[in-house]
Amino acid sequence: MSFVRNAWYVAGWSSDFGNELKALTIVDQTLVMFRCADGALVALEDRCPHRQLPLSKGKRIGDTIQCGYHGMTFGRDGKCVRVPGQDNLPASAYVETYPVHEQHQIVWVWMGDPDQADPDDIFDLPEFSDPAWQAHQGSALHIKAHYLNVAENLVDPAHVSFVHPTTLGSAASENVPVHVRANDDIIVAWRWIRDAAPVGFFQDFGGFKGHVDRWHYYSLHLPSTAVIDFGSADTSLNLAEDDRDAGVRIFALHFVTPVTEDYTIDHWMHLRNTAVGDSEASERMDRMFEVAFAEDKAILEAIHLEEMRPQKRRPIRLAIDKGPTVYRKRIRDLIEIEVTENLGAVRSTFVQHD
Ligand code: FES
Ligand SMILES: [Fe+2]
Question: For residue 55, how far is its CA from the centre of ligand 1 (angstroms)?
């Protein structure tokens, strides 16, 4: 299994959740979510402990869910409140609950050990609440691919020239080296393309006509949130690395949620320090990103199919792969820590109640 469980994952945007029961899968675990009468979101295991019908196929009654098979009913805390045909409520008649946290209209769910869930660990950026910046939620890209390949793509600036030639890249960057640095939680791969014609994105946003310096900083926050900080500034400014705010600067955020080993959802949004308050510009930016991300999706799904076929040898690694290589190692380490922590956990196959 290749999932990190002790992590907050994005379940959706706040606007995705209402009164109705919503079924979703994260790290191969099924959840049913709904918004309670007091506005709080709950996430419960989507599997009745009786015959395992997903509770999302049942009925919401107030802040409880009634199973659609024999009517066992569960409260927002996961405890059974009713078993039709008997008065006693067995202690094992419950479903798991998952910690949920909403922040900046984004819904996060903790999929691991509840005792380790700390909302302070949730990804955040000061620009979310900075009036000089515009945040805009884009959409959710559904990709038939393994999440590690999706996330790896987001710490891989070297693909941009080849996969996104009309929007984010150009031939001018094909041979520019990629730098990588990493600490415990974040891997950053970056490069500058100095003194080159503006790419399509910055001809539109920024209106650059002459040569620009363009940067791409791909930061991957473990396990799978990516910030792509990219922008351009007139080459005559000779912008220093840390002065990127003086240029036209955009953050593309990707919240990569592993669904199963074969399916990943990438909730993406963007923040920018230009055209603030201009909703038409937000829409235009969405359209450009949609073009670019469809290009990534096509590549990633084709790779996934190929990875499923029998192979005679392992894929090779190149100089440009520093970011992805470090990323995979960090994920392996995190999973190993979790597996070690769980050693000794015993599970029985069923519990009988008379
Ligand atoms: S399967 Fe849910 S009550 Fe029987
Ligand atoms: Fe891409």
Answer: 9
Distance in Å, CA 33 to ligand 1 centroid: 18
Interior angle at CA 198, CA 194 and CA 204, nearest 5: 145
CB neighbours of residue 294 within 10 Å: 11
Q: Which atom of ligand 1 is nearest to the CA of 67?
A: 2
Name 204's Cβ contacts closer than 8 Å, sequence gap at least 6.
Answer: 284, 288
Q: Are residues 299 and 178 in the same domain?
A: yes
* Ligand 1 centroid – CA 58 distance (Å): 9
Atom of ligand 1 lying closest to residue 53 CA: 1
99 and 244 in a single domain? The answer is: no
User: How many domains does the chain fold into?
Assistant: 2
- pTM of the entire structure? 0.93
Token digits of residue 156:
């891989």
Question: What is the structure's pLDDT at 48?
Answer: 98
Q: How far is it, in rounded angstroms, from Cα 11 to Cα 16? A: 9
Q: What is the pLDDT of residues 179-231, one digit of tens each?
A: 899 987 999 999 898 999 998 888 888 889 899 999 999 999 999 999 999 99
Whether residue 173 is predicted with pLDDT greater than 70 in this model: the reply is no
Domain with residue 21: its CATH number is 2.102.10.10
> Which residues does a 6 A CB cutoff place in the pocket of ligand 1?
48, 50-51, 53, 67, 69-72
On whether both 114 and 142 belong to a single domain, the answer is no
Report which protein residue has its CA nearest ligand 1's atom 3. Answer: 70
